[in-house]
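Q: For a teaching session next week I want to show students how multiple molecules come together into a single three-dimensional assembly. I've collected the sequence lines for a complex. Could you give me the predicted C-alpha coordinates for the whole thing so I can convert them for display?
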Amino acid sequence: MRTAIYPGSFDPVTCGHLDIIKRAAKLFDNLIVLVSVNPLKSTCFSPEERMDFICRVTKGIPNIQVDCDDGLLIDYFNKRNADVIVKGLRAMSDFEYEFQMALVNKDLCYKAETVFLCADVVGTFLSSSMVKQIALFGGDISSYVPHEIETDIIKGVKRLNKGNI
Ligand code: ADP
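A: Of course. Below is the structure for the complete assembly, covering every listed component.
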Protein backbone atom coordinates (compact mmCIF):
# COMPACT_ATOMS: atom_id res chain seq x y z
CA MET A 1 0.00 0.00 0.00
CA ARG A 2 1.50 3.33 -1.05
CA THR A 3 0.48 6.33 1.01
CA ALA A 4 1.02 9.85 -0.30
CA ILE A 5 0.67 13.15 1.53
CA TYR A 6 -0.36 16.33 -0.29
CA PRO A 7 0.44 19.21 2.09
CA GLY A 8 -0.46 22.87 1.71
CA SER A 9 -2.18 25.87 3.20
CA PHE A 10 -5.33 25.34 1.13
CA ASP A 11 -6.56 28.79 2.19
CA PRO A 12 -8.94 27.96 0.49
CA VAL A 13 -8.73 24.85 -1.72
CA THR A 14 -9.05 25.83 -5.42
CA CYS A 15 -9.84 23.93 -8.63
CA GLY A 16 -6.06 23.79 -9.17
CA HIS A 17 -5.55 21.95 -5.88
CA LEU A 18 -8.53 19.70 -6.62
CA ASP A 19 -7.05 18.71 -9.98
CA ILE A 20 -3.82 17.63 -8.23
CA ILE A 21 -5.83 15.79 -5.54
CA LYS A 22 -7.85 13.81 -8.12
CA ARG A 23 -4.78 12.87 -10.13
CA ALA A 24 -2.73 11.90 -7.05
CA ALA A 25 -5.62 9.79 -5.71
CA LYS A 26 -5.39 7.71 -8.90
CA LEU A 27 -1.65 7.24 -8.54
CA PHE A 28 -1.52 6.13 -4.89
CA ASP A 29 -3.50 3.73 -2.69
CA ASN A 30 -4.12 6.35 0.00
CA LEU A 31 -3.87 10.10 -0.25
CA ILE A 32 -3.76 12.29 2.84
CA VAL A 33 -4.56 15.93 2.08
CA LEU A 34 -2.82 17.75 4.90
CA VAL A 35 -3.74 21.26 5.97
CA SER A 36 -0.44 22.60 7.27
CA VAL A 37 -0.82 25.09 10.06
CA ASN A 38 1.98 27.63 10.13
CA PRO A 39 1.71 30.21 12.95
CA LEU A 40 3.98 32.55 10.96
CA LYS A 41 1.53 32.70 8.07
CA SER A 42 -1.73 34.61 8.45
CA THR A 43 -4.68 32.89 6.84
CA CYS A 44 -8.22 33.85 5.96
CA PHE A 45 -9.82 30.55 6.95
CA SER A 46 -9.31 28.52 10.16
CA PRO A 47 -7.75 25.04 9.87
CA GLU A 48 -11.20 23.55 10.59
CA GLU A 49 -12.81 25.58 7.79
CA ARG A 50 -10.04 24.63 5.37
CA MET A 51 -10.44 20.94 6.24
CA ASP A 52 -14.20 21.17 5.91
CA PHE A 53 -13.87 22.71 2.41
CA ILE A 54 -11.52 19.92 1.31
CA CYS A 55 -13.81 17.20 2.75
CA ARG A 56 -16.81 18.66 0.93
CA VAL A 57 -15.12 18.84 -2.47
CA THR A 58 -13.52 15.38 -2.25
CA LYS A 59 -16.59 13.58 -0.93
CA GLY A 60 -16.85 11.14 -3.83
CA ILE A 61 -13.21 10.04 -3.75
CA PRO A 62 -12.87 6.95 -1.52
CA ASN A 63 -9.11 6.80 -0.87
CA ILE A 64 -8.73 10.30 0.56
CA GLN A 65 -8.28 11.40 4.15
CA VAL A 66 -8.15 15.01 5.24
CA ASP A 67 -6.05 15.97 8.23
CA CYS A 68 -4.34 18.95 9.76
CA ASP A 69 -1.00 19.34 11.50
CA ASP A 70 1.02 22.13 13.05
CA GLY A 71 4.39 20.39 13.19
CA LEU A 72 7.20 19.56 10.82
CA LEU A 73 5.95 17.82 7.67
CA ILE A 74 8.58 15.10 7.91
CA ASP A 75 7.51 14.20 11.47
CA TYR A 76 3.94 13.80 10.23
CA PHE A 77 5.23 11.79 7.25
CA ASN A 78 7.01 9.36 9.58
CA LYS A 79 4.09 9.20 12.00
CA ARG A 80 1.78 8.12 9.17
CA ASN A 81 4.41 5.80 7.69
CA ALA A 82 3.92 7.50 4.31
CA ASP A 83 5.89 6.86 1.12
CA VAL A 84 5.54 10.00 -0.95
CA ILE A 85 5.00 13.74 -0.66
CA VAL A 86 2.97 15.16 -3.54
CA LYS A 87 3.43 18.74 -4.71
CA GLY A 88 1.81 20.68 -7.53
CA LEU A 89 3.98 22.78 -9.80
CA ARG A 90 2.49 25.78 -11.51
CA ALA A 91 5.42 27.58 -13.04
CA MET A 92 9.18 27.88 -12.77
CA SER A 93 8.58 30.28 -9.88
CA ASP A 94 7.23 27.36 -7.79
CA PHE A 95 10.12 25.16 -8.79
CA GLU A 96 13.00 26.75 -6.89
CA TYR A 97 11.23 26.70 -3.53
CA GLU A 98 9.71 23.25 -4.02
CA PHE A 99 13.06 21.82 -5.17
CA GLN A 100 14.70 23.15 -2.00
CA MET A 101 11.91 21.71 0.19
CA ALA A 102 12.17 18.31 -1.52
CA LEU A 103 15.92 18.19 -0.88
CA VAL A 104 15.56 19.26 2.75
CA ASN A 105 12.84 16.67 3.37
CA LYS A 106 14.98 13.96 1.76
CA ASP A 107 17.89 14.99 3.92
CA LEU A 108 15.74 14.81 7.06
CA CYS A 109 14.30 11.44 6.04
CA TYR A 110 15.93 9.42 3.26
CA LYS A 111 12.77 7.54 2.33
CA ALA A 112 10.76 10.74 1.73
CA GLU A 113 10.37 10.99 -2.04
CA THR A 114 8.65 14.09 -3.43
CA VAL A 115 6.59 13.63 -6.58
CA PHE A 116 5.70 16.74 -8.59
CA LEU A 117 2.56 16.91 -10.67
CA CYS A 118 2.32 19.72 -13.23
CA ALA A 119 -0.70 21.98 -12.89
CA ASP A 120 -3.24 21.81 -15.68
CA VAL A 121 -3.56 24.73 -18.08
CA VAL A 122 -6.05 26.73 -15.99
CA GLY A 123 -4.35 25.83 -12.71
CA THR A 124 -1.09 27.30 -13.90
CA PHE A 125 -2.18 30.84 -13.08
CA LEU A 126 -4.44 30.00 -10.16
CA SER A 127 -3.59 30.59 -6.50
CA SER A 128 -5.58 30.81 -3.28
CA SER A 129 -4.46 34.44 -2.84
CA MET A 130 -5.74 35.36 -6.27
CA VAL A 131 -9.12 33.76 -5.54
CA LYS A 132 -9.39 35.72 -2.25
CA GLN A 133 -8.53 39.02 -3.92
CA ILE A 134 -11.07 38.52 -6.70
CA ALA A 135 -13.75 37.52 -4.17
CA LEU A 136 -12.98 40.49 -1.92
CA PHE A 137 -13.64 42.91 -4.75
CA GLY A 138 -16.81 41.14 -5.84
CA GLY A 139 -15.38 39.38 -8.90
CA ASP A 140 -16.51 36.04 -10.29
CA ILE A 141 -14.59 33.09 -8.77
CA SER A 142 -16.89 30.37 -10.09
CA SER A 143 -14.35 28.91 -12.52
CA TYR A 144 -11.58 28.87 -9.93
CA VAL A 145 -13.15 27.14 -6.93
CA PRO A 146 -15.41 24.08 -6.61
CA HIS A 147 -19.06 25.21 -6.67
CA GLU A 148 -19.90 23.48 -3.33
CA ILE A 149 -17.75 25.97 -1.42
CA GLU A 150 -17.99 29.13 -3.53
CA THR A 151 -20.56 30.91 -1.34
CA ASP A 152 -18.68 30.09 1.88
CA ILE A 153 -15.44 31.42 0.42
CA ILE A 154 -17.10 34.70 -0.55
CA LYS A 155 -18.64 35.03 2.95
CA GLY A 156 -15.32 34.21 4.64
CA VAL A 157 -13.32 36.68 2.59
CA LYS A 158 -15.79 39.49 3.25
CA ARG A 159 -15.39 39.17 7.05
CA LEU A 160 -11.74 40.12 6.75
CA ASN A 161 -9.96 43.24 5.76
CA LYS A 162 -7.49 43.39 2.90
CA GLY A 163 -4.49 42.88 5.22
CA ASN A 164 -5.32 39.19 5.71
CA ILE A 165 -5.48 38.34 2.02
P1 ADP B 1 -0.70 28.60 -2.38
O1 ADP B 1 0.67 28.72 -3.00
O2 ADP B 1 -1.81 28.92 -3.34
O3 ADP B 1 -0.86 29.17 -0.99
P2 ADP B 1 -0.70 26.02 -1.10
O4 ADP B 1 0.33 26.24 -0.07
O5 ADP B 1 -2.07 25.72 -0.61
O6 ADP B 1 -0.85 27.08 -2.22
O7 ADP B 1 -0.23 24.87 -2.10
C1 ADP B 1 -0.13 23.52 -1.78
C2 ADP B 1 0.47 22.79 -2.95
O8 ADP B 1 -0.39 22.90 -4.07
C3 ADP B 1 1.83 23.31 -3.43
O9 ADP B 1 2.57 22.20 -3.90
C4 ADP B 1 1.46 24.22 -4.59
O10 ADP B 1 2.51 24.34 -5.51
C5 ADP B 1 0.28 23.47 -5.18
N1 ADP B 1 -0.65 24.33 -5.87
C6 ADP B 1 -1.18 25.49 -5.44
N2 ADP B 1 -2.04 26.00 -6.35
C7 ADP B 1 -2.03 25.13 -7.40
C8 ADP B 1 -2.67 25.10 -8.67
N3 ADP B 1 -3.48 26.09 -9.06
N4 ADP B 1 -2.43 24.06 -9.49
C9 ADP B 1 -1.60 23.08 -9.11
N5 ADP B 1 -0.94 23.05 -7.95
C10 ADP B 1 -1.15 24.05 -7.09
